[in-house]
Amino acid sequence: MLNTLLRLQDLDLKIEACKAREAEIPNQKKKFDIQGERLHAELEERKKACTDLELEQRECESAIEQRNAQIAKYNGQLNTVKKNEGYQALLHEIDLQNKQIGIREERIIAILVELDEAKARVEEDSKRIDDELNKIDRQRGEIDTELEDAIRHREELEALEAPLEKKADPYLLKQYKRIRSSLKSGPALVPLQDEVCGGCNMLMLPQAVNEVLAGLTMYPCRHCGRLVYSAEHANFESNAEAAPKGTAD
Ligand SMILES: [Zn+2]
Predict the structure, then answer these.
(1) Distance 23 CA to ligand 1 centre (A)
(2) Cβ neighbours, 10 Å, residue 208
(3) Residue 57 sits in which domain range?
(4) Which of 54, 63, 148, 203 is the most exposed place for a label (fewest CB within 10 A)?
(5) How far is the CA of 157 from the centre of ligand 1 (A)?
(6) Which helix (H) or strand (E) holds 97?
(7) How far is the CA of 179 from the centre of ligand 1 (A)?
(8) Is residue 4 part of a domain?
(9) Ligand 1 center to residue 237 CA distance, Å?
(10) Residue 245 C-alpha to ligand 1 middle, in angstroms?
């Protein structure tokens, strides 16, 4: 009887671990999603650096155009101005416009150099980011497979429960299930360790210790409510890998 329940508990704890893993797996995927978003944002930023420079170049070009138009206008006025003062003032204005044009022409040269570098960086980073995004896609696929495997494994374990429950003592099974559901997780059946409950490490009463050691019964711990059994009388060892097969009791 004890061994059947212990096998059932072993199964339940494995199923519990599977469910915890199933819950954890989507979180890993979320991590990759965030990583992917960051890479996309990085690439966008690189591209924006290029478009910003191109925009600035166009602004410089149109400013030069406007100032050239202004200079042409001043040049026209030079022929009509009679006074020397006015003439000098116009020459001064033309000089100022030319200086402004010079500043923008220099800026355009610098922009072209920066643009070359920025474009080379986009190309380089695109390759790296593409590689990383492909890797993320692969890892996301692996996670999907892992989740499918975990679910399948859990379902296989769950299928083993009903036959064991049928074999178990109905009264003990009911107690076991009640304790398990009130604990939410972890074992409901714990071995006696010396004179202490293997679940909460609190001292058991001598009478309880004697009854457990006699191997006749499982005794509820008065501190945590778990059922305490004698490991000496239990003929069961958890197999962490494969699901336990229902053999000798
Ligand atoms: Zn206890």
Answers:
(1) 29
(2) 19
(3) 11-158
(4) 148
(5) 28
(6) helix 84-159
(7) 12
(8) no
(9) 21
(10) 29
CA of 221 to the centre of ligand 1 (A): 5
Structure tokens at 209: 């210790």
Dihedral, CA of residue 137, residue 138, residue 141 and residue 146, to nearest 10: -140
* 40 and 153 assigned to the same domain: yes
- One domain, residues 83 and 183: no
Tens of pLDDT, residue by residue over 23-72, are 998 888 899 999 999 999 999 999 999 999 999 999 999 999 999 999 99
Q: Are residues 101 and 153 in the same domain?
A: yes
| Separation CA 181–CA 67 (nearest Å) | 83
Strands (E), the chain: 189-193, 196-197, 219-220, 227-229
Q: Is residue 46 within 8 Å of residue 118, measured between CB atoms? A: yes
pLDDT in tens, 200-220: 999 999 999 999 998 877 899
Residue 57 Cα, ligand 1 centroid: separation in angstroms? 77
Span from the CA of 154 to the centroid of ligand 1 (angstroms): 29
Rounded to the nearest whole angstrom, what is the distance from the C-alpha of residue 185 to the centroid of ligand 1?
Answer: 14
